[in-house]
Amino acid sequence: MADAPKPKEKSKISSARRLGLKIRLLIVAGQMLEVEVEEKKRERDEALAERVPPLKLSGLSVEELQDLCRDLHHKIDVVDEERYDVGLKVTKNDKEIHDLGLKIIELQSKFKKPNLKRVKISAEAMLSVLLGSKHKETIDFKSNLKTVKKPEEKKEEVTDWRQNVDAMSGMEGRKKMFDA
Fold it and tell me: Could you say which of 26, 42, 66, 142 has the lowest number of CB atoms within 10 Å?
């Protein structure tokens, strides 16, 4: 009787009360979200006011304005470089996270790679399978291969060592060995 279905239990809260609670929760969550958005906006404004002081353009000469513009362009370039570097790091980390997720899925699954069998197929058959109806002419691959000539090894004549003993004896024999 372990597999017998259990009778459906009645919830202790009526559906009207449950719906009212859901509505109240959504209202409270909306209010909290609005407060959070306002707080983030305030923090952003404070950070900008701290990092970027207000520009005082009145009473500046043309040269001072040009220097200010050059300085601002330099700061913009530095910030763009930092933004680009951070963007690259983020994309690299995202790719790494994706790869690790795939590894986890692969490790958790019970997928086994099948053992592949070696198939002997001729070059003509392979081309006809790959190219389909486009493959019409036969190609002799062996005729296109380069021929390699193996150098013949010099074989030394095997002679009886006793015949050369007299010729190789003494200093003259050793000199002949070094000359050869």
Answer: 142
Q: d(Cα 71, Cα 138) in Å, to the nearest integer?
A: 71
- Does this model's pTM top 0.85? no
**Amino acid of residue 134:** K
For residue 93, the one-letter residue type is N
Q: Give the pLDDT band (50/70/90) at residue 1.
A: very low
